[in-house]
Amino acid sequence: MKPTSFWAAPILSLLFFAAFVGVWHFSTQQTLGEVTVDPEYAALIGAQAATGGQSAMPGPLDVGAKLWEHIRDPFYDRGTNDKGIGTQLIYSIGRVLIGFALAALVAIPLGFVIGMSPLIYKALDPFIQVLKPISPLAWMPLALYTIKDSNISAVFVIFICSLWPMLVNTAFGVASVRKDWLNVARTLEVSSLRTAFQVILPAAAPTIMTGMRISVGIAWLVIVAAEMLVGGTGIGYFVWNEWNNLSITNIITAILLIGLVGMMLDTLLAQLARAVTYKE
Hints:
Helices cover 76% and strands 0% of the residues. With 280 residues, the chain is an all-alpha fold. It has a domain at 85-276: MetI-like (MetI-like fold), CATH 1.10.3720.
């Protein structure tokens, strides 16, 4: 197989993006004539768009103009329901990082214990398998009822959804460390603490980082839905508020920024994962 050029993938990505924008542009420009629609739907999205006079979906030029408007002044604060999109993103990222960090503080040490003890692994595995598939949003009513604080409740949901991938991957990575290395450490009479930090942790680090990448992706997904429920601030609340204002352009702009922030978080952890990965 011939090696591909360094620029081949970026150029192909740009072509795909241009094709997508072109299809998007032309599909929002078409006029369909008079169309009979449900009156409630027409009242919701506007009579002109509902009857086919124009598309209810904004085009790429409209979204680009709105995105530039947000970028020019991302941190304004004009009241409770009128904050810049940069401010909203900061609130969301802050909640995600706090919940994610708390989950890491619990999951990684507990994963070490589970991975190093087959007995504890078998004892706790049923609980993990029962709790892991529960939707994080299912915890939100309980969190709001017991904690009685919307911000802390959102952080709790991030903590819960971030916990399981890191816990499972850490336990798996620790349990998968080559027995030869552990036997050498025992032969050299290395202490358990030193073995954990100098043998097990470096060997399990790539698997742990994979769990952290999965966790931060799930956390960023969940925070949007959580903020729609708790309200107040955050990019999720921004999306819900703009839906109430019927501003589809703002919603698409927020969706684009949510994707970009998620990509940056994943890229950062991917770089950290490469830094701790070694070749045998």
